[in-house]
Amino acid sequence: MADLASSLRGLFTENLGYKLIALLLALLLWFDVSTDEISVVEYPVPLHVSVRGSDMIVINELPAEVDVTFTGRGRDLLSLDRDQLLIEKEVRGAENDTLQIGLDPRDVRRPADIEVTPIAVTPSQIVVVTDRFMEKTVTLQPIGAPTAERGFEVVDVVVEPGRVKIRGVTSEVGSIGSLALDLTQIQRVSGPLDLKMEIAIPESLRTVTVTPDSVRIRGRVVELAGDR
Protein backbone atom coordinates (compact mmCIF):
# COMPACT_ATOMS: atom_id res chain seq x y z
CA MET A 1 0.00 0.00 0.00
CA ALA A 2 2.89 2.28 0.89
CA ASP A 3 4.48 1.54 -2.49
CA LEU A 4 1.22 2.49 -4.26
CA ALA A 5 0.98 5.77 -2.36
CA SER A 6 4.60 6.54 -3.13
CA SER A 7 4.05 5.80 -6.82
CA LEU A 8 1.01 8.08 -6.97
CA ARG A 9 2.88 10.85 -5.17
CA GLY A 10 5.72 10.51 -7.62
CA LEU A 11 3.30 10.68 -10.53
CA PHE A 12 2.22 14.18 -9.45
CA THR A 13 5.47 15.53 -8.03
CA GLU A 14 8.28 14.16 -10.22
CA ASN A 15 9.29 16.39 -13.13
CA LEU A 16 6.66 18.89 -11.98
CA GLY A 17 8.02 21.65 -14.21
CA TYR A 18 7.68 19.57 -17.35
CA LYS A 19 4.19 18.48 -16.42
CA LEU A 20 3.07 22.09 -15.88
CA ILE A 21 4.46 23.03 -19.28
CA ALA A 22 2.64 20.11 -20.89
CA LEU A 23 -0.59 21.15 -19.18
CA LEU A 24 -0.15 24.73 -20.37
CA LEU A 25 0.48 23.59 -23.93
CA ALA A 26 -2.64 21.41 -23.80
CA LEU A 27 -4.71 24.37 -22.60
CA LEU A 28 -3.27 26.60 -25.31
CA LEU A 29 -4.05 23.95 -27.94
CA TRP A 30 -7.64 23.67 -26.68
CA PHE A 31 -7.98 27.46 -26.65
CA ASP A 32 -6.60 27.71 -30.20
CA VAL A 33 -9.00 25.08 -31.50
CA SER A 34 -12.03 26.51 -29.68
CA THR A 35 -11.41 30.07 -30.89
CA ASP A 36 -11.40 28.93 -34.50
CA GLU A 37 -14.99 27.82 -34.15
CA ILE A 38 -17.84 30.13 -35.21
CA SER A 39 -19.53 31.67 -32.18
CA VAL A 40 -22.11 34.34 -31.37
CA VAL A 41 -21.69 37.04 -28.71
CA GLU A 42 -23.56 40.16 -27.58
CA TYR A 43 -21.32 43.21 -27.16
CA PRO A 44 -21.99 46.84 -26.05
CA VAL A 45 -21.47 49.41 -28.81
CA PRO A 46 -21.47 53.21 -28.29
CA LEU A 47 -24.33 55.15 -29.90
CA HIS A 48 -24.04 58.72 -31.17
CA VAL A 49 -27.03 60.58 -32.64
CA SER A 50 -26.79 64.08 -34.17
CA VAL A 51 -29.23 66.37 -35.96
CA ARG A 52 -28.50 67.99 -39.31
CA GLY A 53 -28.25 71.77 -38.90
CA SER A 54 -25.97 73.82 -36.64
CA ASP A 55 -28.88 75.19 -34.57
CA MET A 56 -30.61 71.82 -34.04
CA ILE A 57 -30.15 69.47 -31.08
CA VAL A 58 -31.50 66.25 -29.60
CA ILE A 59 -33.41 67.12 -26.41
CA ASN A 60 -34.41 63.72 -25.03
CA GLU A 61 -32.33 61.15 -23.17
CA LEU A 62 -30.79 58.52 -25.45
CA PRO A 63 -28.85 55.38 -24.48
CA ALA A 64 -25.09 55.88 -24.49
CA GLU A 65 -24.69 52.40 -25.95
CA VAL A 66 -26.72 49.56 -27.43
CA ASP A 67 -26.21 45.80 -27.50
CA VAL A 68 -25.01 44.35 -30.80
CA THR A 69 -24.95 40.63 -31.55
CA PHE A 70 -21.83 39.59 -33.49
CA THR A 71 -20.96 36.29 -35.14
CA GLY A 72 -17.51 35.13 -36.20
CA ARG A 73 -14.53 33.04 -35.19
CA GLY A 74 -13.85 32.99 -31.48
CA ARG A 75 -10.41 34.56 -31.93
CA ASP A 76 -11.93 37.53 -33.81
CA LEU A 77 -14.74 37.96 -31.29
CA LEU A 78 -12.12 38.11 -28.54
CA SER A 79 -10.51 41.01 -30.44
CA LEU A 80 -13.59 43.22 -30.20
CA ASP A 81 -12.82 46.55 -28.54
CA ARG A 82 -15.59 48.94 -27.47
CA ASP A 83 -13.41 51.95 -28.36
CA GLN A 84 -13.20 50.75 -31.98
CA LEU A 85 -16.94 50.24 -32.41
CA LEU A 86 -19.64 52.82 -33.08
CA ILE A 87 -23.16 53.34 -34.34
CA GLU A 88 -23.51 56.90 -35.60
CA LYS A 89 -26.79 58.29 -36.89
CA GLU A 90 -27.52 61.73 -38.35
CA VAL A 91 -31.22 62.59 -38.45
CA ARG A 92 -33.29 65.29 -40.11
CA GLY A 93 -35.40 66.89 -37.41
CA ALA A 94 -37.52 70.02 -37.09
CA GLU A 95 -38.66 72.18 -34.17
CA ASN A 96 -40.12 70.06 -31.37
CA ASP A 97 -40.12 67.02 -33.66
CA THR A 98 -40.38 63.35 -32.64
CA LEU A 99 -38.71 60.73 -34.84
CA GLN A 100 -38.59 56.94 -34.84
CA ILE A 101 -35.05 55.91 -35.82
CA GLY A 102 -34.20 52.33 -36.78
CA LEU A 103 -30.87 50.77 -35.76
CA ASP A 104 -29.59 48.23 -38.25
CA PRO A 105 -26.59 45.86 -37.99
CA ARG A 106 -25.26 47.56 -41.14
CA ASP A 107 -24.90 50.77 -39.11
CA VAL A 108 -22.15 49.28 -36.94
CA ARG A 109 -18.71 50.70 -37.67
CA ARG A 110 -15.87 48.28 -36.85
CA PRO A 111 -12.21 47.66 -37.81
CA ALA A 112 -11.80 46.14 -41.26
CA ASP A 113 -9.17 43.65 -40.04
CA ILE A 114 -11.54 41.92 -37.61
CA GLU A 115 -13.68 39.36 -39.44
CA VAL A 116 -16.90 39.58 -37.43
CA THR A 117 -20.43 40.21 -38.66
CA PRO A 118 -23.07 42.17 -36.69
CA ILE A 119 -26.40 40.38 -37.03
CA ALA A 120 -28.73 42.21 -34.61
CA VAL A 121 -29.02 45.43 -32.60
CA THR A 122 -30.98 45.79 -29.35
CA PRO A 123 -33.01 47.95 -29.25
CA SER A 124 -33.68 47.95 -32.96
CA GLN A 125 -35.43 51.34 -32.80
CA ILE A 126 -35.13 54.49 -30.68
CA VAL A 127 -37.21 57.64 -30.27
CA VAL A 128 -35.38 60.92 -30.99
CA VAL A 129 -36.88 64.30 -30.09
CA THR A 130 -35.32 67.31 -31.81
CA ASP A 131 -35.69 71.06 -31.44
CA ARG A 132 -34.11 74.29 -32.62
CA PHE A 133 -32.00 76.65 -30.52
CA MET A 134 -33.06 80.29 -30.37
CA GLU A 135 -31.94 83.42 -28.51
CA LYS A 136 -33.97 86.38 -27.31
CA THR A 137 -33.76 89.30 -24.87
CA VAL A 138 -36.24 89.41 -21.98
CA THR A 139 -36.85 91.69 -19.01
CA LEU A 140 -36.21 90.82 -15.38
CA GLN A 141 -39.34 91.10 -13.25
CA PRO A 142 -38.49 91.85 -9.57
CA ILE A 143 -40.80 90.08 -7.12
CA GLY A 144 -41.16 91.60 -3.65
CA ALA A 145 -38.42 93.68 -2.01
CA PRO A 146 -35.38 93.18 0.22
CA THR A 147 -36.02 93.42 3.96
CA ALA A 148 -33.89 95.32 6.45
CA GLU A 149 -33.29 94.97 10.17
CA ARG A 150 -36.20 95.84 12.44
CA GLY A 151 -36.95 99.56 12.37
CA PHE A 152 -35.42 100.06 8.93
CA GLU A 153 -36.42 99.57 5.32
CA VAL A 154 -34.66 99.24 1.97
CA VAL A 155 -35.55 101.93 -0.56
CA ASP A 156 -34.50 103.02 -4.05
CA VAL A 157 -33.77 99.44 -5.12
CA VAL A 158 -32.09 99.20 -8.53
CA VAL A 159 -31.51 95.99 -10.51
CA GLU A 160 -28.78 96.07 -13.15
CA PRO A 161 -29.08 95.01 -15.88
CA GLY A 162 -32.85 95.08 -16.30
CA ARG A 163 -32.77 92.86 -19.40
CA VAL A 164 -30.86 89.66 -20.14
CA LYS A 165 -30.34 87.30 -23.06
CA ILE A 166 -31.72 83.79 -22.83
CA ARG A 167 -30.84 80.88 -25.09
CA GLY A 168 -32.43 77.47 -25.41
CA VAL A 169 -34.70 75.34 -27.55
CA THR A 170 -37.72 76.95 -29.18
CA SER A 171 -40.22 74.91 -27.17
CA GLU A 172 -38.84 76.41 -23.93
CA VAL A 173 -37.64 79.89 -24.92
CA GLY A 174 -40.44 80.85 -27.29
CA SER A 175 -43.05 81.49 -24.60
CA ILE A 176 -40.79 83.33 -22.13
CA GLY A 177 -41.55 87.05 -21.91
CA SER A 178 -39.71 87.81 -18.67
CA LEU A 179 -37.78 86.15 -15.85
CA ALA A 180 -38.77 86.55 -12.22
CA LEU A 181 -36.21 87.80 -9.71
CA ASP A 182 -37.23 87.04 -6.13
CA LEU A 183 -35.89 89.94 -4.05
CA THR A 184 -37.51 88.63 -0.87
CA GLN A 185 -34.54 86.26 -0.56
CA ILE A 186 -32.45 89.27 0.49
CA GLN A 187 -33.08 89.67 4.22
CA ARG A 188 -31.76 91.47 7.33
CA VAL A 189 -29.99 94.18 5.37
CA SER A 190 -28.19 96.41 7.86
CA GLY A 191 -26.26 98.81 5.66
CA PRO A 192 -26.06 100.06 2.10
CA LEU A 193 -27.31 97.34 -0.22
CA ASP A 194 -24.88 96.36 -2.98
CA LEU A 195 -24.66 92.69 -3.94
CA LYS A 196 -24.81 90.19 -6.77
CA MET A 197 -27.71 87.81 -7.12
CA GLU A 198 -27.83 84.74 -9.34
CA ILE A 199 -30.74 84.53 -11.77
CA ALA A 200 -32.73 81.39 -10.99
CA ILE A 201 -33.96 79.32 -13.93
CA PRO A 202 -36.97 77.03 -13.31
CA GLU A 203 -35.97 73.36 -13.31
CA SER A 204 -38.52 72.70 -16.05
CA LEU A 205 -36.43 74.78 -18.48
CA ARG A 206 -33.68 72.19 -18.97
CA THR A 207 -31.91 73.80 -21.93
CA VAL A 208 -32.21 77.50 -21.06
CA THR A 209 -29.12 79.57 -20.20
CA VAL A 210 -28.99 83.25 -19.22
CA THR A 211 -26.38 85.89 -20.04
CA PRO A 212 -25.34 87.37 -17.70
CA ASP A 213 -26.23 84.73 -15.12
CA SER A 214 -26.33 87.22 -12.22
CA VAL A 215 -27.40 90.82 -11.60
CA ARG A 216 -26.27 93.65 -9.33
CA ILE A 217 -28.79 94.87 -6.76
CA ARG A 218 -28.31 98.22 -5.05
CA GLY A 219 -30.39 100.21 -2.59
CA ARG A 220 -30.40 102.42 0.52
CA VAL A 221 -31.37 101.48 4.06
CA VAL A 222 -33.33 104.16 5.94
CA GLU A 223 -34.85 104.27 9.41
CA LEU A 224 -38.63 104.06 9.62
CA ALA A 225 -40.18 107.35 10.70
CA GLY A 226 -42.18 105.83 13.56
CA ASP A 227 -39.08 104.29 15.15
CA ARG A 228 -37.04 107.45 15.46
Assess the beta-strand content as a share of residues: over 45%
Assembly state (oligomeric): single chain
Largest sheet features: 6 strands, mixed
- pLDDT average, as an integer? 85
Question: What can you see in these coordinates?
Answer:
- By secondary structure, the protein is an alpha+beta fold.
- It has two domains: about 35-125; about 135-225, RNA Polymerase Alpha Subunit, Chain A, domain 2 (Beta Complex).
- The protein contains four helices and 14 strands.
- Strands 2, 5, 8, 10, 11 and 13 form a six-stranded mixed beta sheet that branches. It has a five-stranded mixed beta sheet with strand order 6-4-1-3-7.
List the helices and strands and how they pair.
Layout: H1 2-13, H2 16-34, E1 38-51, E2 56-58, E3 65-73, H3 74-77, E4 86-91, E5 97-102, E6 108-109, E7 116-122, E8 125-143, E9 152-160, E10 163-169, H4 170-173, E11 178-182, E12 193-198, E13 209-211, E14 214-223
Parallel strand pairs: 1-4, 8-11
Antiparallel strand pairs: 1-3, 2-8, 3-7, 4-6, 5-8, 8-10, 9-14, 10-13, 12-14
